[in-house]
Amino acid sequence: MAEAGKIKNIGLRGVKVADTKISNVDGENGILIYRGYRIEDLAKYSTFEETAYLLLQDRLPGTSQLEEFNRQLVSARQIPSFILNTLNGLPHGAPPMDVLQASVPLLAMADSDLTDDSREANVTKAMKLIARVASMVAAWQRIRHDKEPLPNDETLSHAGNFLWQLTGDKPDPEIAKDLDTALVLHADHSFNASTFACREVVSTQAHMYAAVAAGVGALSGSLHGGANAQVMRMLMELREEKDVPGWVKQQLDSGRKIMGMGHAVYKTIDPRAQFLKEMCFRLGKKLGQEHWCTLSSEIEESAVSEFERRGKTTIKPNVDFYSAPVYHMMGIPGDLMTPIFAVARIAGWTAHIIEEKFGDAQAKPALYRPSSEYIGNYCGKTGCTYEPPEKRG
Ligand SMILES: CC(C)(COP(=O)(O)OP(=O)(O)OC[C@H]1O[C@@H](n2cnc3c(N)ncnc32)[C@H](O)[C@@H]1OP(=O)(O)O)[C@@H](O)C(=O)NCCC(=O)NCCS
Fold it and tell me: Are 350 and 342 in contact (CB under 8 A)?
């Protein structure tokens, strides 16, 4: 028995629970790779569709393979009408992440090949989920504002069509490209909490949709994907604030966190944050809204120097810090920022689910079953004496 009070709450930091061939985070050097490719190169040269193919298929597609994949994604965008009817019946104030988490099992019900657990069928399920999570987030935004969901525009990219279905305006190509890049940057991140949740669920041989629903739940928390919405709240709160360094100091003095900063793995700048910061200033200039980026950068500077003063030299902005102002300038409301994280991360989740399901990076699939230290009531091997209720004190 463990000594009472010494609880092991290590958050699995540094524990290598499995091998993976999908992505790697080198936290010391701030390097992220998907299937061997640097995130900077993918962000600059790839598209979300091509990156999703890379994550799922372990190679970059040739022209015809990419065309075919794009065609399949486009044709899978439409959400079955019974799901739209269900969404229509939900309370309009429901948080979009809860709606998304509730919708994923509906997609399972719409899958006539649900019980086909072959690799091919799972790749098809992944492709449908990648297409439809975006459609679902956009549809809910319309429905909750008493608007009809919009038909997809086959001529637009995944990111462009998402913006169109969300807003009802054909997107500026440069903004659609920036969203596409943001989706690439968010598409995977090795064994983060939501991906691990997906892998854990699918290790029981549950189907892909069950695993993705768990991933959405894990992503919703403010220490994970939910941080971007919290960053936006902070920016809104601070937009009139003249004394940002004073606010930062007060926040830390009172034991509160600066959202969008710090990371369980990165001990230096998150390469995705670096990229999004540049995007923020470029987009801000184009849209005349640079003040969001200046404010973010002011908070970053104050927080980093205040952390350093307190001996915490490794806390820097993470992916959520600059994605919040970027999404805000794109016209995306705060409570849709985490769902948009899911729109991107669905590519990584489904790739990891397939890897886990088929034991692609290990000898054979294995059920996750960690152990714990029991530190509760203990009366020896015979157990405590059971007394009927009337005899209990
Ligand atoms: C992501 C996060 C959970 C990682 O936590 P972690 O692995 O425990 O981080 P560390 O071990 O580096 O933290 C070390 C210390 O810095 C503190 N710290 C870390 N990030 C902080 C932040 N953003 N604001 C204030 N303090 C922070 C921790 O509370 C801890 O303090 P303590 O030693 O006094 O208890 C954490 O940085 C955090 O909560 N960030 C804000 C939420 C966020 O942006 N999440 C998105 C992650 S992509």
Answer: no
Q: Is 249 in the pocket of ligand 1 (CB under 6 A)?
A: no
Whether ligand 1 lies within 6 angstroms of the CB of 324 is answered as no
The reply to whether 320 belongs to the active site is yes
Per-residue pLDDT of the chain (393 residues; tens, 9 = 90+): 545 455 566 788 888 999 999 999 999 999 999 999 999 999 999 999 999 999 999 999 999 999 999 999 999 999 999 999 999 999 999 999 999 999 999 999 999 999 999 999 999 999 999 999 999 999 999 999 999 999 999 999 999 999 999 999 999 999 999 999 999 999 999 999 999 999 999 999 999 999 999 999 999 999 999 999 999 999 999 998 889 999 999 999 999 999 999 999 999 989 999 999 999 999 999 999 999 999 999 999 999 999 999 999 999 999 999 999 999 999 999 999 999 999 999 999 999 999 999 999 988 889 999 998 899 999 999 999 999 999 997
Burial class (CB in 10 A: 0-12, 13-18, 19+), 215: buried
Main-chain phi, psi angles of 359, to 5 degrees: 55, 40
Strand partners, 24: 33
Distance from residue 65's CA to the centre of ligand 1 (Å): 42
* Residue ID of nearest Cα to ligand 1 atom 3: 223
Instruction: Give the global pTM.
Output: 0.96
Distance in angstroms between the alpha carbons of the first and the last residue of the chain: 26
Ligand 1 centroid vs 262 CA: distance in angstroms?
Answer: 5
- 188 part of the active site: no
- Which one of the listed residues 224, 263, 328, 352 is annotated catalytic? 263
